[in-house]
Amino acid sequence: MQLTSTFKLVFLKQMLLGVQLSAASSNSMSFHERKNAIKLSADAAIAFARGRTRWSQGLITNLSKNEKNKDILKSLLGRKYDNLRKPYCKSLKIPRSKKILRRCLRMCSRRKKAGRAQHDVCKSVLAKALAKKRIQVLKKLVPGGESMDGFSLLDETLDYAMSLKAQVDVMRRLLKTSKALNIKQMKAWGQGGLDFTAGGHL
Fold first, then answer.
1. Quick check: 157 and 76 in contact, CB under 8 A?
2. Which of 79, 49, 77 is nearest to 63 (CA)?
3. What average pLDDT does the chain have?
4. Interval 127-174: pLDDT, tens
5. SS3 assignment for the chain
6. Quick one: how far is CA 19 from the chain centroid?
7. What is the pLDDT of residue 134?
8. Contact of 153 with 139, CB cutoff 8 Å
9. Is 96 exposed, middle or buried (0-12, 13-18, 19+ CB in 10 A)?
């Protein structure tokens, strides 16, 4: 999946809007409340920017479980709020996954015909157990992953990981820009201070 610059711009716009909405809903916010507001805004913005996928639907559903979040989510997402919470009905037919499945079945049949040794069977069982364990871990990491099968989970995980990478990239650039502006303001204030003292007013 290739994410465009449009995705990043939409994400940034929605995240900043979410922070503004959170700040407007409370006159004074503690550090912990500000942190939660930024996280909520970032999560909602990435779901909005990506559109309707299984993980974005799962993310909004999880966020909506907290009643305090619903008003902000509805204001931030607009019409997309209800759309992202509807059951995902996309077909689970994935051509490349079918190819992988057929290839695996052919390999298994060849191994049976070849009459592999018992230790090969043990290796296969251990590999399946390890794969199953990893799938369970992925299901916990990806929003909405509990309702996905193995093949769709891999596709959604890749999509989610790419979206998170773009999210981190935007937030790093935003932080870098913010720091640069603060330094520039401090330098301007310092130069003003020097001019002030040079005028003999202190």
1. no
2. 77
3. 78
4. 788 888 888 888 999 999 888 887 888 889 999 999 999 999 999 998
5. CCCCHHHHHHHHHHHHHHHHHHHHCCCCCCHHHHHHHHHHHHHHHHHHHHCCCHHHHHHHHHHHCCHHHHHHHHHHHCCHHHHHHCCCCCCCCCHHHHHHHHHHHHHHHHHHHHCCCHHHHHHHHHHHHHHHHHHHHHHHHCCCHHHCCHHHHHHHHHHHHHHHHHHHHHHHHHHHHHHHHHHHHHHHHHHHHHHHHHCCCC
6. 17
7. 85
8. yes
9. exposed
Angle at 161 between CA 85 and CA 124, to 5 degrees: 105
Cβ 63 vs Cβ 43: under 8 Å = yes
CA gap 166, 8 in Å, rounded:
7
Choice between 123 and 136, residue whose per-residue pLDDT is larger: 136
Amino acid at 94: I
Q: Are 41 and 19 in contact (CB under 8 A)?
A: yes
Contacts of 76 (CB under 8 A, 6+ apart): 14, 17, 18, 21, 41, 44, 45, 48
Q: Are 142 and 153 in contact (CB under 8 A)?
A: yes
Cα–Cα distance list, 47 to 43, 58, 153, 154, 178 (Å):
6, 9, 17, 18, 24
Work out the number of other CB atoms within 10 angstroms of the CB of residue 83.
13
